[in-house]
Amino acid sequence: MTFHDVRHRHRYLHLLYLTILLLTTSTTGDDAAVMSKLSTSLSPTPSSWSTNTDFCKWDGITCDNSNRVTAINLPSKSLTGSLPSDLNSLSQLKTLAVQRNSIGGVLPTLANLTLLEQVILDSNNFTAIPTDFFTGLTNLQSFSITDNPDMSSWTIPENLNQNTNLQSFQAGNANIMGGIPDIFDKFPNLQNLRLSYNNITGALPVSFGGSQIRNLWLNNQKQGLSGTLDVLSSMTQLEQVWLQANVFTGAIPDLSNCTGLFDLQLRDNQLTGLVPASVMSLPKLVNVTLQNNRLQGPLPVFGSGVVAELGSSSTNSFCLTTPGPCEPQVMVLLEVAGAIGYPLSLAQSWEGNDACQKWSFISCDSSGKYVTSVNFGKQKFSGTISPAFANLTSLRSLSLNDNNLVDSIPEVLTSLPNLQLLDVSNNNLSGKIPVFPERVKFVHTGNVLLGQDVSGGPPGSEPGSGDTGGNSSGSTKGVSGGLIAGIVIGVLVFVVIILFVCYKCYLKKKNQKPKTVQDPEKGKEAVKASDLQSQSSGDQTEMSVFEGGSIVISIQVLREATNNFSEENVLGRGGFGVVYKGILQNGTKIAVKRMDSGVMGTKGLKEFQAEIAVLTKVRHRHLVALLGYCMNGNERLLVYEYMPQGTLSQHLFEWREHKTNPLSWKQRVSIALDVGRGVEYLHSLAQQSFIHRDLKPSNILLGDDMRAKVADFGLVKSTPDAKHSMETRVAGTFGYLAPEYAATGRVTTKVDVYAFGVVLMELITGRKALDDTLTDEKSHLVTWFRRALISENIVKAIDQTLDTDEEDTLESICKVAELAGHCTAREPYQRPDMGHAVNVLGLLVEQWKPSQPDEDDGYGIGDHMSVPQLLQQLQADEGTSRMFDDSFDQTQSSIISKPPGLVDTFGTSGR
Ligand SMILES: Nc1ncnc2c1ncn2[C@@H]1O[C@H](COP(=O)(O)OP(=O)(O)OP(=O)(O)O)[C@@H](O)[C@H]1O
Ligand SMILES: *[C@@H]1O[C@H](CO)[C@@H](O)[C@H](O)[C@H]1NC(C)=O
Ligand SMILES: *[C@@H]1O[C@H](CO)[C@@H](O)[C@H](O)[C@H]1NC(C)=O
Ligand SMILES: *[C@@H]1O[C@H](CO)[C@@H](O)[C@H](O)[C@H]1NC(C)=O
Ligand SMILES: *[C@@H]1O[C@H](CO)[C@@H](O)[C@H](O)[C@H]1NC(C)=O
Ligand SMILES: *[C@@H]1O[C@H](CO)[C@@H](O)[C@H](O)[C@H]1NC(C)=O
Predict the structure, then answer these.
(1) What's the gap in Å between 196 CA and the centre of ligand 6?
(2) Does the Cβ of 239 fall within 6 Å of ligand 6?
(3) Which residues bind ATP (predicted)?
(4) d(CA 842, CA 835)
C-alpha cells in the first residue's frame, strides 16, 4: 500500500530530518508528518510545496488557527502517485478534494475524521477503497468518486449509515457491484444519489420511500437493477429520475405526489402496464423517455411542453400507434393483467388492439371476436383475481390454477352467463366461496384459507353447502324472535342442506353412469368410455386436470396399461424413444411413446405443456390423435390413439416379413389421399400453422380398414416461427428432404409437399426413398424416378406387385406419377399446394367408387377412431368443453354441438 517511487528514494534522508525538525519545533505534531508524506507521494506537487515552507502556506492547503489542516483542495493538478495511508491522522480535516487528476493506488481510510464534510475523488485512477473508509464520518455531507474506472469491484458499505448528514453520494462509473443497501431511512438530508454505469443489481430498497432524494441516477447498470418501481411513488422530493437501461419490471407507479419531477428517464427496461395518468399530468415534467419497454394500453399523451420519447409500437406494447382508447375487450384483459402486476410474459405477447390475434393464454370463439377461454394455469402469477373477468361475457373457461393468487374470488364472476369451468385450485385464495350455477365446474381445492372465515368448516367443502350454512348461521343470529325461532330455522336449514347434498350426489351418480356411443354405421358399441371418464373426473392425481385442453395421464395408469412397459408390448422404436401398446381398463387401446427429456431439448415444463395443449386440439380424422401426456421425472410420455395395422412402411416395404398382402393400387391411392388431407389440414390451421417436416411411410399409420393417418406431427417441431426452426432441431430424414431445406434449413409448407411427393413415388414403385443396396444411380428414388418420368419410362418403375392389367389402373398410376414429379420440383414455388394434391387424388379415388358417397365424410372409420372424440364429448358433458377451440377446426364445433348419435354426419373437414 505504501508505495514509494524510485525517484523519491533520494529524499528519504532529507525527509527524516525534516520530520524530526517539525516534530520538535512545531505544535502541530502529526499533520506535518502526514503532509510531508503527501508531498512525497504525489507528483508533480505545486511549486509552492517546498519542504522549507510551512505546509499551511502550500497551494491548496488550508489550516485553522492552530496550524491544523482543514482542507486539501487539489483539483485538476495533473497529479499522479497516491494518497498516504495515514491521511486520517489529519484529525481536523473538513475537505478532501483531489478531483480530475490521475492519482491511483488504494485509497487511505478516512475513518474517525469526525469533522470531514466533503470528499471529492472524481476522475482519478484509484484502485480500491478500504472497508472502514466511511467509519464514523459523522459530518460527511458529500462524497463523490465518479469516474474511477480502475477501481476493483466494491459494494456500497452498510456502515455508510453512520454518516447521517450525507447530502450527496455520487459514485457513477466506479465499478460498484452488489445491491443497494436498505439504509436510506438514515439520511434525512440526502438529495443526490448518483450511481450510474456500475454493476449494481437487485431491487430499489424499501427505505427509498419517504427519503428526500431529488436526483436519483441509477441508469445503465451492467446486469441491471430489477424489481418494480413502486417505491418511487413515495419519494415525493424526486426531481430527476434516471433509471434507464436496467431490467425493472412491473408497472410505472402512481407518481401524483412527486410534483417536483421534471426529468423521468425510464427507457430500456421491461416495464409493463398502462402509463398512469398521474405521470402524464406531472406539473413540472419537461423530459420523459419510455421507449424500449413493454408498456401497454393507450399511447400516453403528455403536455405540449414535454419532450417525450415513447418509442414506436414495436418498442412498447401500446394497443395503437396513435393516441386513443383501446378496444373494450383489450382494456378488460389489461385490467385482469393489472391485478397480477402486468406480468412481462403477457405484455410480450399481448400486442395490438385485438385480443383474438394470437394473444397467449387467450382463446376466442369461431368468429374470432370474443374471448372464450383464459388459461393462466401454472404461470407463477401472483396478485388477485380481477373482477373485470366478469366483463368477458363470452367466457366459457377460466383457469387460474396453480399460481400464487390471494384475496377472495370476486362474487361477480358468478354472473358470467356462459361460464362452464372455473379452476382456481392451488392458490392462496381466501374469503367466501361464491356459489356458481349448476353448469359451472368450479374447482377450488388447494386454497387453505378459502371459505374458512365464512363457514368455519373444513376448506374445500361443497361450495353450495358451505355457503348456505354460513349465510344461514349469520341470519339466525340476526333473527330477533328468540331462541326457539333460531332453533327452528337452524333445523330447517339443516334439512335443506341435507336435501341439497343428496341432490348433488344424485346428479353426480347420474353423470357417472357408463356412457356408450352407438356407431350407426357399424351398428355396435364404439367404445365404452366410462373407464376413462371415472378416472378423469375422480382422482385429480390419476388422470385429467385439463390444462389448456390437454390431458395429464398418470404414470400408474400407463404402467398398468402397458404391463409395466413390458418388452412384448413394444410396437416399435423411433428416433425419440420406444412406442408401447397399451390397453386401458375398459379395453381401449392406446399407443404410448416414451421419450426421455433429451428429446424435448431444453424445453421447459411450461413450454412442453403449452405445446401439448395445442397438439391435443389439433384433431383431424387423418391425423393420429394425441390423447394425453404424462411427465415422470425427466421422461415425457405421449399417449396416442392406437393404430392396429402399424405403419405404411411395414405394408409397403416389409409385407413379406410381416406375412401380409402387398397393398393394392386402390389402397395406395386412398392412403395417399388420406395423408394429403391430414397434411393439408396441418398446413391450414388457423392459429398456428404446422409443418410436419418429417413425412415418410414410417410416420403414416394404418387402421384396420387400411385407411391412413399421419403421425408424429407438431411435437418438437412446431415453432411459432417455423421459418427459423433450425435452431431447435434439424428434423427430417434423408431421402425426403427438400433441397432448399437440406441446404438452408428454411422451412415452408412446401417442404412437406416435397416429402409427400417422395411418398407417392414410394407408393408407385414399392421402393424406399433411399436404398443403399442399389447402385448409386438407382439408390436415390427421387433422382431415379424423375429421370424415368422425363424419359417417359414410368411403367418400368412401377411396383411389380401391382396389377396393371386394368387400363384405368395404369392411367391412375401415371397421374399420380405426374403429381409426384410436380410435388418434388426443385424450386419450392414450382411445387403445388397440398390442396392441389388432394384434389388430384380425390378425383382418382372417386373414380373407383362412383356409387359410394365419399366415405371420408363419415366418422365411423373404425372403433379406435372414436376415442379422442369421445374423450372430448365426455369432457363436454363435464362442462369442460374449452378443450375444443372452435377456431381450430370447424368440424370440432360441429362435434360438440351434436348429440353423439349424429356425430358421423358432419361435413369434410380441413376445407
Ligand atoms: N399410434 C400408434 N399405433 C400403433 N403403432 C404405433 C403408433 N405410433 C407408433 N407406432 C409404432 O412405433 C414405431 C415407432 O414410432 P416412432 O414415431 O417413435 O418412430 P418413427 O416414426 O419410426 O421414427 P422417428 O422417431 O424418427 O419419427 C412406429 O414405426 C410404429 O410401428
Ligand atoms: C477509529 O476510532 C475507533 C475508536 O476510537 C478505533 O477503535 C479505531 O481503530 C479507529 N479507526 C482508525 C482507522 O483509526
Ligand atoms: C487513469 O484513468 C484514465 C481514465 O480511465 C486513463 O485514461 C489513464 O490512462 C489512467 N492513467 C493511469 C496512469 O493509469
Ligand atoms: C455484474 O455482477 C454480476 C454479479 O452480481 C456478475 O455475475 C456479472 O458478471 C457482472 N457483470 C459485469 C459486466 O461485470
Ligand atoms: C399522496 O399523498 C397523499 C397525502 O399524503 C396520500 O394520501 C396519498 O396516498 C399519496 N398518493 C400516493 C400515490 O402515494
Ligand atoms: C431534455 O432533453 C434534452 C435533449 O434530450 C436536453 O437537451 C435538455 O437539457 C433536457 N432538459 C432537461 C430539463 O433535462
Answers:
(1) 18
(2) no
(3) 593
(4) 10
For residue 111, the ligand 2 atom closest to its alpha carbon is 13
**Closest ligand by atom to 210 CA:** 5
C-alpha neighbours within 13 Å on the C-beta side of residue 31: 21
639 forms beta bridges with 592, 628
* Nearest listed ligand to the Cα of residue 122: 3
What one-character DSSP code corresponds to residue 55? G
| CATH code, domain carrying 754 | 1.10.510.10
Phi-psi region of 714 (alpha: psi -120 to 50; beta: other; left: phi over 0): left
Q: Is it the case that residue 911 has pLDDT exceeding 60?
A: no
Same domain, residue pair 889 and 812? no
Averaged pLDDT score across all residues of the chain: 79
Residues of 244-275 as b/e, b for ≥16 C-beta within 10 angstroms?
A: bbbbbbbbbbebeebeebbbbbbbbbbbbbbb
Digit-coded pLDDT (tens) for 200-238 = 999 999 999 989 999 999 999 999 999 999 999 999 999
For residue 305, which ligand has an atom nearest its CA? 6
Number of domains comprising the chain: 4
Whole-model pTM over 0.70: no
Pick the range with the lowest mean pLDDT from 38-47, 210-219, 499-508, 708-717.
499-508
Give the domain CATH number at 204: 3.80.10.10
* Claim to verify: residue 569 and residue 652 sit in the same structural domain: no
Tens of pLDDT, residue by residue over 877-889, are 333 323 323 233 3
Q: Which residues of 619-636 are buried (b: 16+ CB within 10 A; e: fewer)?
A: bbbbbbbbbbbbbeeebb
Are residues 135 and 79 part of one domain? yes
Distance CA 124, CA 769 (A): 72
Q: Is 257 in the pocket of ligand 5 (CB under 6 A)?
A: yes
User: Given this model, what pLDDT does residue 452 score?
Assistant: 76
Residues 6+ apart with CB under 8 A from 89: 30, 31, 33, 34
Q: Tell whether ligand 6 has an atom less than 6 A from the beta carbon of residue 284.
A: no
Residues 759 and 880 in one domain: no
711: pLDDT strictly greater than 70: yes
Pocket flag, ligand 1, residue 147 (CB < 6 Å) = no
- Binding site listing for ATP: 593
Q: Identify whether 493 is part of a domain.
A: yes
* pLDDT tens per residue across span 393-418: 999 999 999 999 999 999 999 999 99
The verdict on the CB of residue 234 being under 6 Å from ligand 5 is yes
701 lines ligand 1 (CB under 6 A): yes
Asked, for residue 182, whether it belongs to a domain, the answer is: yes
- Choose, from 31, 694, 863, 889, the residue flagged as catalytic: 694
Cα 124 to ligand 3 centroid, rounded to whole Å: 7
Is 443 within the bounds of a domain?
Answer: no
Structural domain range at position 587: 518-642
Residue 694 annotated to the active site = yes
Last residue of a domain, one of 196, 225, 254: 225
Residues 140 and 60 reside in one and the same domain: yes
Element of type H or E holding 896: helix 890-897
Index of the ligand 2 atom closest to the CA of residue 132? 13
Q: 722 CA to middle of ligand 1, Å?
A: 23
The answer to whether residue 199 is domain-embedded is yes
Residues 617, 680, single domain; the answer is no
Cα three-residue angle 354-357-359, rounded to 5 degrees: 95
Question: Is the pLDDT at 598 greater than 90, yes or no?
Answer: no
CB neighbour list of residue 391: distance below 8 Å, 6 or more residues apart: 328, 332
Instruction: Report the separation in Å between the CA atom of 10 and the middle of ligand 3, taken as the mean of its atom positions.
Output: 27
Q: Distances from the Cα of 488 to the Cαs of 425, 456, 480, 496, in angstroms?
A: 36, 21, 13, 12
Q: In the block, which residue shows the cell 415418410? A: 696
The binding site comprises 593
From the CA of 121, how far away is ligand 4's center (Å)? Answer: 24
Q: Are both 586 and 671 inside the same structural domain?
A: no
Average pLDDT over residues 730-755: 84
Are 794 and 692 found together in one domain?
A: yes
Instruction: Choose one of 620, 642, 664: the last residue of a domain.
Output: 642
